[in-house]
């Protein structure tokens, strides 16, 4: 059984563009508010990692496509 395979990789910008093209995609930035303010993806949500338990109040839709 082969657990890890090397697959062709794309630049991260391509993955982001593909995800943004999906309807109702949510980008969740888990860095601190200070790091988030230094730069983040447009329309992303900020929820610091240590507050991840609050995700249900920020994103109540359990079927949402969330990119972290």
Attribute tags:
68 residues; alpha/beta; 3-stranded parallel beta sheet; 3 helices; 15% strand
Can you give a write-up of this model?
With 68 residues, the chain is α/β, with parallel strands linked by helices. It has three helices and three strands. The chain has helices spanning 12-21, 33-38, 55-58, and strands spanning 25-29, 45-46, 65-67. A three-stranded parallel β-sheet has the order 2-1-3, covered by helices on one side. The longest helix has 10 residues, at 12-21. The model has no long low-confidence stretch (mean pLDDT 89).
In short:
This protein is an alpha/beta fold.
What fraction, in percent, of the residue positions are helical? 25-40%
- Spatial strand arrangement across the major sheet: 2-1-3
* Rounded mean pLDDT score: 89
Structural class of the secondary elements? Answer: alpha/beta
The fraction of residues in strands falls at 5-15%
- Reading the helices and strands in chain order gives HEHEHE
Helical stretch tally = 3
Cα-atom radius of gyration: 15 Å
Low-confidence stretches: none
Instruction: Tell me about the largest β-sheet.
Output: 3 strands, parallel
Instruction: Using the alpha-carbon principal axes, give the shape.
Output: globular
């Amino acid at each position: 059984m082969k657990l890890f395979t090397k697959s062709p990789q794309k630049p991260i910008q391509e993955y982001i563009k593909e995800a943004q093209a999906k309807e109702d995609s949510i980008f969740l930035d888990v860095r601190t508010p200070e790091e988030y303010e230094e730069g983040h993806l447009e329309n992303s949500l900020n929820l610091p990692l240590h507050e991840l338990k609050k995700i249900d109040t920020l994103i109540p839709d359990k079927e949402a496509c969330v990119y972290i």
